[in-house]
Amino acid sequence: MSEQAPEQVYKGRKIAVRPVRDSPQLFIDGRLIHTYFRPDSRVYVTNHLPYRTHGSLAELAKALIDNKRV
Amino acid sequence: MGYRKNASTLSATEKANFVAAVHDLKNTTLQGHALSMYDEFVAEHLSVCYIAYGPAAGTNGAHGGPAFCPWHREFICRFEKALQSFDPSVSLPYWNWNSGNAPDTAAVFADDFLGGAGTGPGGAVQTGPFTVANGWKIHTALTPKGMGNALTRNPTLDPSTLPATAANNALNDTNYNIFQPDLEDNSHNEVHVWVGGNMDYMTSPNDPVFFLHHANVDRLWAVWQEKYPGAANYDTPTAYGPYGHKIDDRMWPWDGGLNNGGSSPGWITGMMDCPDEDIRPYLPTFGAMDIVTPRMVVDHAATCGRYDTDPPKLKDIIKSETKEIIKLETKEFIKAESKDFSKAEVKELKEKDLFDGPGKNWFKEFKELKEKDKDIFEGPIWQRPGDSTLGDLAQRITVIEAQLGHAFIAAEERPPVGRRITKGTGEKVE
Predict the structure, then answer these.
(1) Which of the 8 DSSP states describes residue B323?
(2) Residue in A closest to B271 by C-alpha
(3) Can you name the residues that pair with B420 across neighbouring β-strands?
(4) With a cut of 0.95, is the ipTM above it?
């Protein structure tokens, strides 16, 4: 799923990446998930799963669900 | 100044003292504070992960950027000093997880030190000094949702899966802005995940192994700095560096009140996976003069303790300088001693036709002296009675080596103790 792809359901959870003020934001089941984008290494991180980096917000969302962090 | 050792080299007493000091921190709450001294460290680490207000608002002040190394350097330094407030003999050991040696890790997770893997319900640690039964309970405000108050870890802690290679590869990065994310993402992060349980959350300092892990991360930074010295290499314009990450930025919470007074950073209710309560009331107050920037902690030896792997800089200088002085003095002495008796000198005198007049007497005196001091040519010159100069040199070497605790001049470079000088040439032979 690209950053602008439509919503998808993963393990029963609804993942959406929507632009908010020109910046893609991650939502899981409608809840905004706070993320950081690191431009130097072009990875996304979140404090919900602090010691992992992800290549996309969708990948990050799936990791959060897999690790039961949301 | 403390001296940080590989945890696997600690004596039983050193391990017991460290564990006792950690428990002292956990069991001591300062007057007017909401958390124990230990839990305040957990709260600070949690809070720096999302700074709510001030110039660093919306950022992580300690991770994902250049300040990762200096922020944690200061953090563990303060933790070590807190331990020393209970027991001045204690220093923060490091867990050498990149050594590739399983015993380095086994020693850390031994029952006489930090306890074992998570074998109980929910991955609760059930052995060692940091179990609930032994009084180690995670504070409710610092417990991730769904977790109890027991310290938790992964059920399997296999040393062979630690990121030793990644860490050692990072040491070859030539620029800080490559080294820092490499170290943080590819090895530091992996170790947090490897331990698991509490270590996999922003409240990771709940597990005391956090501090030994970060002592090793800090040691690796020190090793890297030794290879690529210079504070200028800390930051570049291309770095991911929000406020707090530039070399002269103030790092929260040691920002002198830059973010205090109603705009303090802290927990945003519901933003993260930890408690649904604001963590800010739990944070200690930091003084207006309590200011730390990355530049202030670039030199780890000046900031806090040294590591047992640090190169012995001063010792090396003393060794090198002393060695050179003694070599020079010895060379000069031998030169002076042999000069008057060399064949070249005699030949020169002959050529100058000095056998008539004063030169004749000189040569006669030389022959007499040569006979008298036969041992200079054929005997062990160090043993000549009354030869104080060489004796002094020998004594100086002995004293310096005793201070260093080992020999520092190679056998072939030593002054000619017991050596002989060849007849006529003045050259020394074994």
Answers:
(1) H
(2) A34
(3) B429
(4) no
